[in-house]
Amino acid sequence: MKTVLFWFRRDLRLSDNPALRAALNAADRVVPVYIHSPHEEGDWGPGGASRWWLMKSLARLDRRLRDHDSRLIIRQGDALDCLHSLLASTAAEAVFWNRLYEPAVVERDRKIKEWLKQQGYHAESHNGALLVEPWELRTGKGEPYRVFTPFWRALSKRDEPDSPLQKPRTLRPTAQWPSSLALDELKLLSGIGWEDKLETHWQPGEAGAGDAMDRFLDQALVDYKTARDLPDVSGTSRLSPHLHFGEISPRQAWHRVRSRMAGQAAVEEGGWTWLRELGWREFAHHVLFEFPHTPDQPLYSRWQDFPWRKNHEAFVLAWQRGETGYPIVDAGMRELWETGYMHNRVRMIAASVLVKNIRAPWLSGAKWFWDTLVDADLANNTMGWQWSAGCGADAAPYFRIFNPFTQSRRFDPEGRYLRRWLPELSKLPDRDLHAPHEAADGILHHAGLRLDRDYPRPIVDYKSSREEALAAARAVASA
């Protein structure tokens, strides 16, 4: 073939990009394309934080392409219309892309591939986002997995993932480039400046992903098994947004960790613990693909009737603002607003309080995280919130409710995380920091803290709200 289109989606990298390599092997000239069509993702087009990341990552991808005498052609609108126009203007004979697995996108891509073939074009898609395609793993009964441990056991028994592909030496640029929108024309930013602060915390793009991987391997992998639960230390990889946008592939990450583990017993435990977390990402995509109703509805339909609190909107707003009176939750929500990120242990606690103490619908939390997290991913976000609500895959055999006070004392015992994000509580002694409403008046006075003025009391009583949630769960289970 003389000319083909390569359609970038959430695979914003040059290294280990299977569909890009296939396009380069098939043609004399390759035209890289990005099409912005969030309306084709159903109710789950990218949120505010994701749009900021996307803008930065596309800009950096274009610079990398231009370093190889290529460039990124940007279009906006219905993907099929844009591809049709580009095929006509470039005389391209084929379109190559890497697969995605969200329900609306799967259906859209199926129709596009069908149309291309009907019109005589070559259409070719590859797996560039997962270690294993969702349909490649099944239970002994031939059914999709709903529980992680047997899924991970099956995944672990497979051969090691193929070695990552190297960055191509040439991108086979064309001499005649089609027209392109400027990146600013996509209007990805909100216009209120909220995203500006994200710049100080993140480095989107393929190079940023490599730097994050290096930091994790050098500084955090050895202690990952224990440090990953401590929100006041840099004990996690922070690779989740880079994986979501495809700036690093899962098999690149897998092999980098496996390579560091080789011959180093000290990192063996941390390495396997992290690879298991990568397995959770695979499992989340497996469940989303097999059960496409789950972004909006429980995996198990009986939970559709769970009795959420009436008039919960004001409670949700307090949760969003970090004003619940539960310090570990409020610290996490403020971290999220400032950085586009929340430590995973704190995410679980914050989610538990919202759905089981406040008893607000899990979708209200899922939508807030979707808009504010730089690593918002439909598979991971859906699984995380349904796990917290007890209505999804791999739910605990009992209706687990996190105690935010004991969790806080256990995982932030010296209060460094709380003091960073809740400076109004900074003068409280460690023993009172995690539950200011229980502190003696003299302690509060000495710390210069007045409850309900400087910091709220809990918006719901933990013990009574816990009992109400348990009773609600029992009612659903016995229905």
Automatic annotation (TrEMBL):
InterPro entries, A to Z: Crypto/Photolyase_FAD-like_sf, Crypto/Photolyase_N_sf, Cryptochr/Photolyase_FAD-bd, Cryptochrome/DNA_photolyase_1, DNA_photolyase_1_CS_C, DNA_photolyase_N, Rossmann-like_a/b/a_fold
The entry's keywords: Chromophore, FAD, Flavoprotein, Lyase
Keyword field contains Flavoprotein: yes
PROSITE patterns: DNA_PHOTOLYASES_1_1 (PS00394), PHR_CRY_ALPHA_BETA (PS51645)
Single GO MF annotation: deoxyribodipyrimidine photo-lyase activity
Site (Electron transfer via tryptophanyl radical): residue numbering on this chain: 308, 362, 385
Positions bound to FAD: 224, 236-240, 274, 375-377
Cofactor binding remark: Binds 1 FAD per subunit.
Enzyme Commission number(s): 4.1.99.3
Reactions that this protein is recorded to catalyse: cyclobutadipyrimidine (in DNA) = 2 pyrimidine residues (in DNA)
GO terms (BP aspect): photoreactive repair; response to light stimulus
Family listed: Belongs to the DNA photolyase family.
Name assigned to this protein: Deoxyribodipyrimidine photo-lyase
Organism: Natronospira elongata
Source organism phylogeny: Bacteria, Pseudomonadati, Pseudomonadota, Gammaproteobacteria, Natronospirales
